[in-house]
Design goal:
- GO terms for molecular function: phosphatidylinositol bisphosphate binding.
- It holds the Pfam family CRAL_TRIO.
- It comes from Homalodisca liturata.
- By secondary structure, the protein is of the alpha/beta class.
- It is built from 11 helices and 4 strands; from the N terminus they run H-H-H-H-H-H-E-E-H-H-E-H-H-E-H.
- A 4-stranded mixed beta sheet has the order 1-2-3-4, covered by helices on one side.
- Helix 2 crosses helix 3 (60-69) and helix 3 (60-69) crosses helix 4.
């Protein structure tokens, strides 16, 4: 099981969280300085000693993705990290070469296929906007679709405020047609949705959709 990057040695962690976000982390995630320091130490040693992990980031920001997503339950965070690394290995085309300047990625970002809305809502959350109708299924592949999601999510997961505050997903299905629905087999589509919900270390707070294709409503 592998992930991009090597084992990273870090000094003492300094929290970049605002005071309000630290309070929220204490209330919702049971995170305080002592719990965080102890959990980071155990997670790092576990990752370095785990024979199933060949290379992996062990810097605090990366490890905190899993600890915060699982409310500092070490067994659950460790399981989530292994599942995430396996996901990256299984869908390597979505997580390798995450370059937003690749021609296909640059075009899709410019068209507004997927992006994070500027700023945060009243609860401090980032909104991720998806407009699948602008994705041309005759020109681009499901690998392109997976890669642009990989670029977006990996970038957003690096932000520690968002690790605590979480994300809201908003989709506009205008323009979606049958060819869009055949980019993935039903089995692949179910697996991708489940992985997005359960395996990516993100706190999914809400999901909103408009102009939803009829076939999706009853899926």
């Amino acid at each position: 099981m592998t992930s991009a990057g090597a084992m990273v040695k870090e000094g003492k962690y300094m929290s970049p969280l605002s005071e309000d976000t630290r309070r929220l982390a204490r209330e919702e995630l049971r995170e305080d300085e002592a719990i965080r320091e102890n959990a980071l130490e155990h997670m790092k040693k576990w990752a370095e000693d785990n024979p199933r992990i060949e290379t992996c980031r062990t810097d605090p920001c990366f490890l905190l993705r899993f600890l915060r997503a699982k409310k500092f339950s070490l067994p659950m965070a460790q399981e989530a990290m292994e599942r995430y690394l396996l996901l990256r290995q299984t869908y390597n085309y979505a997580f390798n070469n995450l370059d937003c300047l690749l021609p296909n990625m640059d075009y899709l970002f410019s068209e507004g296929y997927l992006f994070a809305a500027p700023g945060r809502d009243k609860d401090g959350r980032r909104w991720i906007i998806a407009r699948p109708g602008v994705f041309d299924p005759h020109k681009y592949t499901n690998a392109d679709m997976c890669r642009i999601h990989g670029i977006t999510y990996e970038t957003l997961m690096e932000d520690e405020e968002s690790q605590v505050r979480g994300f809201v997903h908003y989709g506009d299905g205008a323009g979606v047609s049958f060819p869009h629905l055949t980019l993935f087999t039903p089995k692949e589509a179910v697996r991708i949705v489940k992985n997005g919900e359960r395996t990516l270390p993100m706190r999914h707070k809400e999901v909103w959709g408009i102009n939803v294709h009829p076939s999706i409503k009853y899926a």
